[in-house]
Structures are given as structure tokens and as C-alpha cells.
Design brief:
Elements lengths: L39 H4 L15 E2 L5 E2 L22 E4 L6 E5 L1 H7 L4 E7 L2 E9 L4 E7 L2 E5 L2 E17 L3 E15 L4 E19 L7 E18 L4 E16 L3 E9 L4 E11 L5 E4 L8 E2 L8 E2 L2 E2 L6 E2 L2 H5 L4 E5 L6 E5 L12 E8 L5 E9 L1
């Protein structure tokens, strides 16, 4: 990627436009069951997602002198196109789940020699943390934390620190893959800490799809669909030298949108009575996507109803004072699009033009937009054309 950064500093006072703005709001938390069964371990494997970089904001020293921000914990700026990750951001959902706060897990990143992000969910009385890696070729899950209260043959226990010996692939090459015998380890908290060994089997099928939004407007995303069949085969309790055969299954159906992340997830397990289905309702700490309606190559695309020509984060306009546009050269090389700061307000805005190439695109069609703050944190969003 050519990191061409435009940073047009204007002396004109920035305009804060709030009239008619479409703001993506947070959702309230929901209450989770007090006690979870071992079967729920499978349903927890793939409920996380989030959206581009890592790190935090800069600082200002005494006298207003700028201080160089600390280096990012997860320094990589290369992600899978369908799961960019950024510390301090979240994707929020409409049902059965809450916001996922994204951070870099430094210890696990060092141990695995790659950037590992933690996505933390806080249900009422129940916390869960998922550990994911996102590279240009794959999206993988390496483990999760609880504690998760479960009923075991030896009594109730709190399972924590679940780690897979082999990562579970969420996104990879199109088609099918899997493994019938994946080992995992965990600990059980309580009066007698107990080590647990798990055996997990899974298969994954992946395809290209169109995702239609409902809670943030009538919009579309080009997306990857990943359907996973997960089975917890057995659990071995080493302290008591006993093995419990579980043999329970879960189907997880996931949609990941390009340059955004996981926009829909559903989990079904007849054995446990689990039926969860959640869709994206907002983003936090991330630029709001822009949708454009295409009518013909002779007409410039215009914002779809509820969308706009400018970018914002949590209701605040993105300006060249605060953010660089990392992939400006790629965006402005498109004959039908230009992204640049407004001369009067310094706000990043888009300009569209008619062009013959619009008639040859496959719709919906998304292009990534990557902003970077003073600390080097990159935040991803997209401009999507819909037919």
C-alpha cells in the first residue's frame, strides 16, 4: 500500500456541522444467564469482532509543546481486509450481545510473535475476552478468557484462560477447511485449581456474499460469509484423572464486511437451546462508513439516504488537523472519486464524478478508506457504491 498522507492545514476555523447528521448510537447492555453450560464454550468461539490499528492518542507537554506519542503496542498496520482491528474501538450489535472493546495483548503478541488483539465483552455479571489475529491472509482465534461458571461432574467451577494449540481459522482461502482433532487447554478456578484439556473438532466453509443492513439503514456491504460447525468432543480433568465425553455441536454463521469487520453473527445449538442472531447497529471510535447510490455511468454517484459526503467519528467531523488520509493516492486515482479536506472547514469530504468505469463494477462495490492519527493508529472505514 502506498502510504501517501495528505495533511492540508488550514487557518480557517473548522465548522462543526451537526444539522442533519446521521449518528450511529451505542446500544444498552443485556443480561446474560448466571450459569453457563460447557456447551456454551463452543458458542463463545466466534462472537467477537471489531475494526483497524492499535495504540492510543498523543500528549501535550508543559507550555503546549507536542510530545512524541509512545510507540504502539501492536505496531502492524497490515490486516485482513475483512477484519481490521484498532485499540479503543468497537462494533455494536442489535441483539444478544454488547460492544466489544478492542485492545492489544502485548504478552500474547510477544509469545506468538504476531499482533494479537483482545476483544472484551462485558455482560451483566459475566466478562468474556477473545483473542484474535488478523493478517492479510487469515483471521484466526487463539483463545478466550472468562471466568465462565459451568456445571461439571465434580461440581460447579469457573473455567478461564482457554487457549487453542492450533488457531481456529475464521477467514482464509475461499472454500472449506477444518480439523477433527484440535487440542486446547484451560484452567478451572476455585478451592483446587484444576487443569483441563479439551478436544475440539471443526469445519469451515467460506463464500463471497452481499450483506444487507437493517439497523443502520438500508445499505449493503460486499462480505465474506464463514459458516463453522464446531464440536466440543471431550474434556479431561487432570487433577481427578477423568474424561467427560461431551459431543455437543454448534453452527456459527458469520458475515465480515470489507474494511469494517464482523457485521453479523449467529450461533445455533439445538442441544443447548442456543439461538443467537445479531447484526451491526453502530460503530464506536471508528469513522462512519459512507454509502453512495449509483444510477448510471453518465451520472455522479450521490450519498444514499442517511449517508453523507463527509467522514465523522462518534458525531465529530474528521479533519486534516487530526488525521492523515493514508491511502489518499489510491482513492484519488479512481476516476469517479476524490477525497480531500474541505478548504473552508478542513473536514475530509468526498467528491464524485460520472465515469465510464462505473458501468463495469460489480455492485455493491467497496473501497477502503484509512485514516491515521498522531500516535500512528490507523482507523478503517469504507465508501460503498450500491446499484
Amino acid at each position: 500500500m502506498n502510504n501517501d498522507k495528505t495533511h492540508n492545514k488550514n487557518s480557517v476555523k473548522k465548522q462543526n456541522r451537526t444539522q442533519g447528521r446521521y449518528v450511529m448510537n451505542h446500544l444498552p447492555s443485556i443480561t446474560a444467564p448466571k450459569f453457563l453450560t460447557p456447551l456454551l464454550l463452543g458458542s463463545l468461539l466466534l462472537t467477537a469482532c471489531g475494526g483497524g490499528g492499535g495504540g492510543g492518542g498523543g500528549d501535550v507537554g508543559s507550555g503546549g509543546v507536542s510530545v512524541t506519542p509512545p510507540p504502539l503496542d501492536c505496531p502492524s498496520t497490515e490486516y485482513n481486509a475483512y477484519l481490521p482491528l484498532a485499540a479503543g474501538t468497537a462494533i455494536n450489535y442489535d441483539n444478544d450481545t454488547v460492544s466489544g472493546d478492542v485492545s492489544c495483548d502485548v504478552a500474547m503478541s510477544n509469545a506468538e510473535n504476531t499482533d494479537i488483539y483482545a476483544i472484551e465483552y462485558n455482560f451483566t455479571g459475566q466478562s468474556l475476552t477473545f483473542y484474535l489475529s488478523s493478517t492479510p491472509g487469515t483471521v484466526e482465534m487463539l483463545g478466550l478468557d472468562g471466568p465462565i461458571t459451568v456445571a461439571l461432574p465434580d461440581g460447579q467451577a469457573a473455567i478461564n484462560n482457554i487457549r487453542f494449540d492450533e488457531p481456529l481459522e475464521i477467514i482464509g482461502a475461499d472454500g472449506s477447511t477444518g480439523n477433527p482433532d484440535i487440542a486446547a487447554s484451560a484452567t478451572v478456578e476455585g478451592p483446587l485449581p484444576v487443569s483441563i484439556s479439551l478436544v475440539i473438532a471443526y469445519t469451515k466453509s467460506q463464500s463471497n456474499v452481499v450483506y444487507n443492513t437493517t439497523d443502520i439503514g438500508s445499505y449493503q456491504f460486499p462480505a465474506k460469509r464463514s459458516v463453522l460447525e464446531i464440536t466440543i468432543v471431550s474434556a479431561t480433568y487432570t487433577t481427578f484423572n477423568s474424561t467427560v465425553i461431551l459431543g455437543v455441536g454448534l453452527t456459527s454463521d458469520l458475515y465480515l464486511a470489507e474494511s469494517i469487520g464482523m457485521v453479523r453473527h449467529s450461533h445455533v445449538s439445538p442441544e443447548a437451546g442456543i439461538a443467537i442472531s445479531s447484526d451491526i447497529s453502530s460503530v464506536s471510535g471508528l469513522p462512519t462508513p459512507i454509502w453512495l447510490d449509483y444510477t448510471s455511468a453518465a451520472t455522479a454517484p450521490i450519498p444514499a439516504p442517511g449517508s453523507f459526503y463527509y467522514f465523522s467519528i462518534d458525531g465529530n467531523d474528521l479533519t486534516a488537523d487530526d488525521y492523515d488520509l493514508v491511502n489518499a493516492s489510491e482513492l484519488n486515482a479512481l476516476p469517479w472519486l476524490n477525497v480531500a479536506p474541505n478548504p473552508g472547514s478542513d473536514t475530509y469530504e468526498i467528491t464524485t464524478l460520472p465515469d465510464a468505469s462505473l458501468s463495469s463494477l460489480s455492485y455493491p462495490y467497496s473501497v477502503p478508506v484509512i485514516f491515521e492519527n498522531a500516535a500512528g493508529q490507523q482507523l478503517y472505514t469504507s465508501i460503498t457504491l450500491m446499484d
